[in-house]
Write a structure and sequence with these properties.
The chain has one domain: Rossmann fold (3-Layer(aba) Sandwich). Helices cover 34% and strands 22% of the residues. It is built from eight helices and 14 strands. It has an eight-stranded mixed beta sheet, with helices on both faces. A two-stranded antiparallel ribbon has the order 4-5. Strand 7 and strand 8 form a beta hairpin. Helix 4 (70-76) packs across helix 5 (110-122). It holds the Pfam family NAD_binding_10. This is NAD(P)-binding domain-containing protein.
């Protein structure tokens, strides 16, 4: 057990990856906050993952609002009258089709808009948090998806991938302020790039393959629960956040 457990703020907490990570953190006794447009939906999802009511009541603070509400985001970044230690962002939109064939999202800029709000709110934190953002494969200059899936990525997933790429660029640009002598809004970042996400049970930590931007782990799919499990075990559930070896990296995940 950690001597001083990190506090964690979750955005996109009703999404599969972040929701699975949040459930594990609550079950393990970590104090968490979560921004939710529908607190009842978040509560129901945590119940489905068998999080005890006692753990939800004791360890979770829910702020009602959306990612465009700067004040609500600021509230989410504070727990027990101090800034949170870690942010986990699993923001994403719901797919829809225009004219029956053109793939897009209900909100095509949700990731970049959301990260702008988070970074803006984090600038007012006396102690800067670290951030984990859930991105995607298919953004690297090195091929990180199987050849057979490349048409799918370039057509069906083009819009969400463009959004996530801007999100990644904004986080990297924020950290570049430090060498320039400015104080960035965050103390460090980790970009998690899972392969195509699926629903269902987790395969387990031992089955997850990890890679880097330069040497990615190439695979077809990974479950959302596995992504949440990896973030919990490799980042949150360490002796300290600094013990996670992946800060400043873009880590690909697949099974």
């Amino acid at each position: 057990m950690q001597q001083q457990q990190p506090t964690v703020a979750f955005f996109g907490a009703t999404g599969g990856c972040a929701n699975a990570c949040l459930a594990l953190a609550l079950q393990a006794g970590y104090h968490c906050s979560a921004l939710a447009r529908s607190p009842s939906k978040l509560h129901n999802l945590l119940q489905q993952l068998k999080v005890p009511e006692s753990a939800i009541a004791k360890y979770l603070t829910v702020i009602e609002g959306d990612i465009y509400d700067h004040q609500a985001v600021q509230k989410t970044l504070t727990l027990n009258d101090r800034p949170v230690d870690l942010i986990v962002s699993g923001l994403g939109g719901k797919p829809r089709f225009e004219y029956g064939i053109k793939a897009t999202l209900d909100n095509p800029t949700i990731c970049q808009d959301g990260i702008r709000t988070i970074l803006s709110a984090a600038r007012s934190c006396a102690q800067k948090p670290r951030i984990v953002i859930i991105s995607t494969t298919g953004l690297s200059d090195t091929r990180d998806v199987p050849l057979m899936m490349m048409p799918l990525y370039h057509w069906l997933l083009k819009v969400p991938h463009e959004d996530k790429k801007v999100m990644e660029d904004l986080v990297e640009a924020e950290m570049q302020k430090k060498p320039a002598g400015e104080e960035p809004a965050i103390d460090g970042y980790l970009m998690v790039r899972p392969s195509l996400l699926t629903n269902g049970e987790a395969s387990g930590l031992s089955k997850i393959r990890t890679g880097t931007d330069q040497n990615p782990a190439v695979g077809y799919t990974i479950s959302r629960r596995d992504v949440g499990l990896w973030i919990f075990e490799k980042v949150i559930h360490q002796a300290s956040l600094a013990d996670c070896p992946y800060w400043g990296q873009k880590v690909t995940l697949t099974v």
